[in-house]
Amino acid sequence: MSRASARHILVPSEEECNSLKSRIEAGEDFAEIAVQYSKCPSGRSGGALGEFSPGQMVREFDEVVFAGEVGKVLGPVKTQFGYHLIEITSRAD
Fold first, then answer.
1. Residues of the chain falling short of pLDDT 50
2. pTM of this prediction?
3. 3-92 CATH
């Protein structure tokens, strides 16, 4: 079964999500941005979600994590919780 590890940043607006993505792409640290801005409790640990299998996260999140490029900041991804930036840190099929 597929497994993946990822970290994410959750914010309420697409605009804020895009702004943070630009900052990360310009060289700011993903984990530091997560600690400062993420509305998810995982933000305190730099956005780290640990390892999970398909179906453990909401559908929109799963689709990105199990199909997207590992190591790249992906998003904004809209879910019922808000807008996410997602970085897949590892994935094994």
1. none
2. 0.95
3. 3.10.50.40
